[in-house]
Amino acid sequence: MKKYSVFAVAREAMRHHTGWNRAWRDAQPKKRYDVIIVGAGGHGLATAYYLGKNFGITNVAIIEKGWLGGGNTGRNTTIIRSNYLQDPSAAIYEKARSLYETMSQDLNYNVMFSPRGVIMLAQTEHEVRGYKRTAHANALQGVTTEFIGPERVKQLVPIINLDGPRYPVLGGLWQARGGTARHDAVAWGYARACSDMGMDVIQKCEVTGVRSEGGKVTGVSTNRGDIDCDKLGIVVAGHSGHLADMAGFRLPIESVALQALVSEPIKPCMDVVVMANTVHGYMSQSDKGEMVIGGGTDGYNNYTQRGSFHHIEETVRALVETFPMVSRLKMLRQWGGIVDVTGDRSPILSKTPVENVFINCGWGTGGFKAIPGSGWGFAELMAKGQSPLTDAFGLNRFQEGRFIDESVAAGVAH
Amino acid sequence: MSTRLATGGRLLNKAKPVNFTFNGKNLRGYEGDTLASALLANDQMLVGRSFKYHRPRGIVAAGPEEPNALVNLGAEGRFEPNARATTTPLFDGLQAASQNHWPSLEFDVGAINKHLSRFLPAGFYYKMFMYPRAAWKHVYEPFIRQSAGLGKAPKATDVDTYEHFYAFCDVLIIGGGVAGLHAALTAGKSGARVIVMEQSDHWGGRAPVDGGTVDGQPVDKFVDGMVTELETLENVTLRRNCMGAGVYDHGYVLGYERLRDDSPHVQGPRHRLWRVRAAHIITATGAIERPLSFAGNDIPGVMLAAAVRDYLVNHGVSVGDRTVVVTNNDNAYLTAIALKHAGLDVPAIVDARVLPQDSQLMEQAKALGIRVMMGHGIASVKGGKRVTGVEICAQAGEGAVLEEISCDAVAMSGGWSPVVHLWSHCGGKLRWDTTQACFSPDVDNPPLGADGMGFVTPAGAASGVFALDDVLNDAFAAADGVMTSLGFDVPRDLKSPEAERRQDAPMMPVWLMPQGASVKLREKAWLDYQNDVKVSDVRLAAQEGFVSVEHAKRYTTLGMATDQGKLSNINGLATLAGALDADIPSVGTTTFRPPYHPISMASIAGEARGTVFQPIRRTPMHDWHDTHGAEWEPVGHWRRPYAYKQGGESTYDAVMREVTNTREKMGLLDASTLGKLIVKGPDAGRFLDMMYTNMMSTLKVGKCRYGLMCSENGFLIDDGVVARFDEDTWLCHTTTGGAERIHGHMEEWLQTEWWDWQVYVANVTEQYAQVAVVGPNARKALEKLGGMDVSKEALGFMDWADGELGGFKVRVYRISFSGELSYEIAVDASHGQAFWDALMVAGHDLGVMPYGTECLHILRAEKGFIMIGDESDGTIIPQDLGLHWAISKKKEDYLGKRAQERSHMTDPNRWQLVGLETTDGSVLPDGAYAVAEGENENGQRNMQGRVTSTYHSPTLGKGIAMGLVLNGPDRMGETLIFPGTDGKEYQAKIVNPVFYDPKGEKQNV
């Protein structure tokens, strides 16, 4: 792999950039791998990367139905934070956040992690109490957060309207080391690093069946032929139910559309990420200048990556109310993605009823921020059969009633 | 230079000159101008700077596809960034300023980037700026952010208003060009309800500019005739300045009507968002001309050929004295001919094609004395902030310059692309048209409705036919087909009119000019003007493996600018296909997403802002509270008094006073917001037995019972007192925030699981005002009002009765959430205020005071009563709260029962409800956690409990708290440590959660 640096760019500029290689090899499927990861999104690629980096397992294929990073990795609002309430969530999201801090250097790929800070607004007394509780929990979980008052909120976000007649801003939960990253770059950086370790990133390769013998996985069937493996990781947000069905088990998830939108780009006006859960909207400004806006999920299950306009309306209305200047901006583009939602709104990283088949899904509306932590923990689970980061997120928790409910800390928006 | 001609300008009202400013300069135009045409008329070709290299940018197009001419428009509360000059109507007093430069448009320091462009190819930022790590946040990112962005951020609050319209129709026709109008006429005369939306302020689209005759009359007269006829049809609604913005599932369409963008000072809404349900949609959205990719094609003065023609014919503006036309098709010849007719010079038509014989238009051009150079292309455009000339080369070659032609404008045409956005929004597929080198709607794969049938039909140029007679025939066929499918009879005498047929020569796809352009030329050949994406960038993406069209787009940012690739996408795809040696259809397109063209956020938000953002629900006593010092707290959609401040006292003091007064004398609480659901029917009893953990079917008429409600997962979701009215009628009280949710919860079960049970649920929350009369003097006050027996014997604890008090018809519940003698009294909502007044009078000598929600909280916490949302948070089962007594052991089932039998739920080692008292009497911090020894595997401090409610109790004169603690009830007297976020550690002892009157003597008197 040719190292990326300002010197490399300068050198290539002299020969009109004719010397750059492919970021990742265009691999053809081999007959057999030690591990196959289905789904070349952020979580799948990160899993493969840490299998190689932490456990030396590099005979790995990451196979992808479409183009890598084309699912929710490339559709989210790029928010990174770890101010979760419950211990297992705080652990995995904080692991992810800390890995994001050094990801550009680790991968030699600038993923533009921008620790600009995240505020979750408290707009009711109930939210104030909830966030104070989260701040207490975070302090013991090693997550640095702080409950701040309205004056501090205004200082951090000058465009905010504190005194909205409907829901005045009473304060907020502030995580200074939260922020954003360039979502596509996360997928591309991991893919490049995986390819560099000798792994095969295989796009346009759709799994059509999961093969097993005696309750143990033997491989997958794809539109490009059968591929054998010892272990199989299913990491296909939005289609987890389909893949589980192929493997022969069911999942306690529902798939719904989640939408986002961007404004036209404007000069910098908001330096932090703001989430307003009472009114259902969140917003940050991309480096390009667009206001990146997200809201809630549709109220019905579906697989179209579109969603209903009513949710866009609700979200924009909330943002206009919270940031009056948004009123004079224009919506450039709206889009949707399909998220897997579990009963407790927490993910599943688990062994499955089929031996050596592992599943990573159910991240709901908040998967992007977890990518490196999820990959780290899931790789450990796949390599060793157990990981402290994923133990609490097993499928068995639904049978045992051991939910990890984040409704207090997360509300609608992740 | 560009200038206003003495003649021409079919859309102008020259009797009405209009004054406006650009960058502070006073300029003049006419009514009917767009800002773009007026700027061109004033020789203002340079209008902005590009996103990345800050290259000088001029106007390229004449419609919404314009990538460059974006301005800061207006000021203060009417400021708008990124307004497109080409779609901004000119009005008197308009203020516009160019964007994205410093210190000025002419001298932009950021333009240094263009000299560095070699070092800044596609994706350069992924490869650098990584060291030192902290520099991204503190140096690189702020710099990039500052130089990116376009318009300024608005500051002042929007002073305009906005609204939504809802409409239904049989056929919605998007586009008021000849195709749309003709389709509308066909549908309208067939009796269908028709809405026609046209994005511009004039009908007819391109046809009047391009000319031709229909049924022997000039096409503009034909257009006028159609509009006149349509206006007479009552079933047809015509809207100009109304853009079809998005097509959604089930025939749902957004229309974006701009009502006051040309007259901001006139009263009325600025924008109106139409939300239309249409049985069928016809997209008559026309086509957009493509640029050609040659070096220097971004220099101001290089424009789309059709735009040059538009400005000439519509606005009487010449963009240059000497215009070179460069093309791969016949259509651009119209521009050359029109310019020549207007007396302007066209030094050459540079045509990339080699044709066996001249077409009709070529002959016309040659006859006018225009030099036509077949098989040629532009090697490079000369000039900096303005075109000064072009270098001509052979299209087949690599760019060797054959001659230089001086000129001040270049009109280019790379062919036409149908506007397929609205067709594609909801899943319509595209096919590649090899002859015309464009994607057009694949009519065999339309967006499908719920019935599996297509609900969008393209018409005219939008479906890929460009000649006038083809367009009209196609529009007629489209409308005819739609009418038939919807069951309307198309009058037999309706048919497509005869348009004059012109014999054009076929176009030739040209994706790079010259076809063998060197890397140096490719680095100057722009694809995306706004985002500065060049041919070389797309090729680099392909080289680096970003071969999926989505990867190439995201890596290069091609098509991600505010024009969403209207000009650049097809050229970019073709470039990518070329680099990959693939054919264009196999590369595919990126996804078309709404809106077609940016729409104001304000129009989406509509009227609902400020005080009407969400409805505020008020109790009948709201105004009284307001005038009696209420501090308001939002609770759900309600506002409830948090406390009533008297004189200069603090909120805290007010709360303390209210608690003491209620305990010692008497307090009134407006409890109207509590949810009240009537559940009625022969199966209501067994239904409630399923809803609640308690047995409700055995409740006696005249009695009340406190009930708990759990989710399927066993978690506590709501609580409240249930009263039985008669044999088959119950009233269920819910929490204030829970009324709608619990109503919905009940309905969901009734409608999806027990649909055969005979039960009705009605939410009567707002039908009653309810007042809690609380405290030792409560009974005395009611006796003063008189009218019914409220003694212990007549109305015992947990009884209810209908009766009369002080002349009011009342329903009195003997229930208590405070531990005091308490009556909750419901009256008709309309009597709420009068009844409240009567209670205040009756209680005057008894020390009555109103109290708010915080006092309510303290009163209940002193009694150890749980509060939904405090002691419960969606993870708590009733057993955790010591509420076993409220869970019926006799029932076979209730919602949550099975869930509560799961192993983790029955684990004896759970966090359970206790009281907490600090050792020094201080108040524990809200939400604090109790720590245990050591850390878990993830390095987190072990915890063993948490505070759920914490207050200062004036009754007890110390801090009291409720909390959940691991095996808490078995650990009475133990001391726990709660680290605060303030750095302090709080110590608290585990105690009984009932701090006040543990035997319940006070409420039972």
Automatic annotation (TrEMBL), chain A:
GO terms for cellular component: cytoplasm. Residues 35-79 form the Rhodanese domain. Its cofactor is FAD; FMN. It holds the Pfam family DAO. The keyword Cytoplasm applies. It catalyses: sarcosine + O2 + H2O = formaldehyde + glycine + H2O2; sarcosine + (6S)-5,6,7,8-tetrahydrofolate + O2 = (6R)-5,10-methylene-5,6,7,8-tetrahydrofolate + glycine + H2O2. Its EC number is 1.5.3.24. Its main location: cytoplasm. The keyword Flavoprotein applies. It is found in: Cytoplasm. Keywords: Cytoplasm, FAD, Flavoprotein, FMN, Nucleotide-binding, Oxidoreductase. This is Sarcosine oxidase subunit beta. It comes from Sulfitobacter aestuariivivens.
From TrEMBL, chain B:
Keywords: Oxidoreductase. Residues 912-997 form the Aminomethyltransferase C-terminal domain. GO terms for molecular function: sarcosine oxidase activity. The keyword Nucleus does not apply. Residues 170-422 form the FAD/NAD(P)-binding domain. GO terms for biological process: tetrahydrofolate metabolic process. Signal peptide: none annotated. It holds the Pfam family SO_alpha_A3. Residues 621-891 form the GCVT N-terminal domain. Residues 523-606 form the SoxA A3 domain. The keyword Cell membrane does not apply. InterPro entries: 2Fe-2S-bd_N, FAD/NAD-bd_sf, FAD/NAD-binding_dom, GcvT/YgfZ/DmdA, GcvT/YgfZ_C, GcvT_C, GCVT_N, Sarcosine_oxidase_asu. Belongs to the GcvT family. This is Sarcosine oxidase subunit alpha family protein.
